[in-house]
Amino acid sequence: MTIDTNKVHKLSKFDAHKLMELSIDVMKLSIPEDRGDKVPPAVGALIWFPEEKEYMVAYRGELRDGDHGEFTLLERKLANRKLDDCILFTTLEPCMKRNPPKVPCARRITNARIKTVYVGITDPDVTVDGKGIKHLENKGVDVVMYDRDLQEQIEEINKKFIENANERKKAEESEDSASMLEASAANVNFGNLSPDALSQFISWANLNEAIASEDFRNRLTRLNVLDAESEPTINGIILFGNEPRETIVDAGVLGTIRFEDGSEETKDFDGPQVLAPQEIMDWIKAKVPNPNDRTDATRKERDEAFFRLVREGVVNAIVHRDYTVSGSKTQVIVTKDSVTIMSPGSPLVTMEQLRSLNAPMRSRNPTLHYVFNRMGLAEERGLGLTSMRQAAETSGLPLPKFTFDDPYLVLTIYRSTEAVVTSLDEEVLSELTDSQRKGWEWLSKRSTVTRGEYADAMKIADRTATTHLGQFKKLGLVEVAGSGRGRSTTYRVVAQ
What we know:
single chain, about 500 residues, alpha+beta, Heat Shock Protein 90, six-stranded mixed sheet, about 15% strand, flat, helicase activity, nucleotide-binding
């Protein structure tokens, strides 16, 4: 698509996805400057004027060599225009460090009093790497990440930039203030790290290094697992510490199994967190019986998929939780029908994106995420939720469900479609007919559905489908999504 970047464009209504796509089209026009060994990114910026229903765009290097897209848009094209109520789209996280007298783009955005910013991908450059987004959020800006399919387009076009930035990240230490997890841990030394956990990291990450070697310690320093004095950071203690909770009391995972007779068994997983997922899975498998199913083959397939979903959920909870939320610990609650994983901290993307299981990539704790990824325990390119969706769909399990119960992000994984129905509150369950309960079982495998799809799947008349979906909506189980009508009316599943 060819777009005139020198004029204001009209759009009949605000369409976030469309505006994201337009910003990517503009990004493709970026003119790279010579940065020596550093590869410049391609960046597109777009600003939406809600009252006028119009937008304007800019791209990196559009007017001057090396000028950032946001700078060109805000300061060269719109320097004399008030932007308080505007919405900004930028394909790359705004920078947070410039050489004086230059002002970082993240600060230019907050100086312009822009309150909503859509960000394509986080900037892997060590001088940014989440700091731009954090500055925006600290200033009260609502940050929304691009949809995952669009992020993949940005990543592909910026492949060389991302590879170059990741190489420099491994070799450089950020000059900015360390985050809480990057800070040196008090009163500990290398001897407080678990040899078993470190050996597991070396083995699973396919490293040809010994624990005592200088190369290995230098690697851990580059990863912010060790500080400049080769002593553990809080990152290091969480990942590999023998007793992480002696340093950060809310680390670790609390496990609870609730048996059918009303009894409970609890267990704390408060050792090195790189070992916790496998320990948790071994504990659950040993204590919870396999569900009965029609055939051994079907049962085995669903069981394997169920445990894959649980493992992925546990890893995500450890990696992405907010360790600054005091008094709250990651919890795993197991019954015969489901596993509920509670992770402290508000979600980094919208609940709608989480519920679709197609959430864009964003990491709260990059070092934890990277180490788990190197060990094959986490998806680093935003594929984790997509993998969960595929595993559930392939095996016929209900889709995992996300809710937020402040301060916890809650993930519920069900062992069967029947369990989705029996888990409903008695008050809600009493309001559903037998046929509606079967309809809810079927809906548990979907994130969205049209009225026509529901009618066809349940083999019922359109009028009956409308009654079913209306009842689900009344009970807060689904909501209308989009502007379709008749059989095209789309419903989004919002409760389990």
